[in-house]
């Protein structure tokens, strides 16, 4: 792997779920439960997993918006820098992530407002160049967000992210709110920008075909852990973790989300208020045996691929 930009080491994040009459927290949601991850410069890392497995929590953690309860999470070259610096995020729903009262040129340059030396003229100039770069018509920059279509609004969100000159952009379901035809345009724009600006992407998506198209590597999450990690083609065509197989089992249909597939076929995701003992997946795993009651760690091989299952090398590969 090329230069490591960011490292997470055994990260745990939880949220209060219930308090008693004295305000004391009596129950917690365990959103991330020992997450290990390295992100390399210039790559696109796809993150997949069912709803509630902790993808957006991971995104917020990377952005420095929430703090881990334990574990380390830092920039590889500067462990003391604030994690969110150099990072920007693009959300699923462009309308709710853009301030409806501001003209688009101001939205786009919002991340640089705090830099006081930016005059209005400078900010307008920046907005113009970012508009050209992202395919927004510069003559529309004085309009409000609601005057734009969904795809155009997502371009605005991307231009806004770029204005801060990030090296990493976290994309949380960037195209799932868009029409199919528009999705491809936005994905192509992201690919173009990545090439031109040497960007690193963390791409969260339910859509396996989006992840396959975009990602160099894929991380599969289950109950706040990474259960499998590796080169995209490898993971998607030769999944080693039983959960990844289950996830991909019925995926040939591009128009369905992972969640729908799972909900139809394999029952509900177990609660993250009380975590399972041992391997988190053993309750649902069709291949579980007695030894799966032991906690599992993500075992990495020399190629950088990893799987959190002690039987991954033993159980037979999936039928082609
Ligand atoms: N601020 C919060 N307070 C309490 N619980 C939270 C909070 N944020 C997330 N959670 C819980 O943490 C778990 C992980 O949520 P998260 O939003 O990270 O899942 P996700 O993988 O992004 O799901 P989706 O695919 O539906 O977006 C869920 O059980 C969720 O309810
Ligand atoms: Mg989410």
Automatic annotation (TrEMBL):
GO molecular function, one term: ATP hydrolysis activity
Name this protein carries in UniProt: Peptide ABC transporter ATP-binding protein
Family of the protein in this entry: Belongs to the ABC transporter superfamily. Drug exporter-2 (TC 3.A.1.117) family.
InterPro entries: AAA+_ATPase, ABC_transp_ATP-bind, ABC_transporter-like_ATP-bd, ABC_transporter-like_CS, Oligopep_ABC_C, P-loop_NTPase
Domain ABC transporter: 6-248
UniProt record, GO biological process: peptide transport; transmembrane transport
Any Pfam family: ABC_tran
Matches recorded under NCBIfam families: oligo_HPY
Record key words, sorted: ATP-binding, Nucleotide-binding, Transport
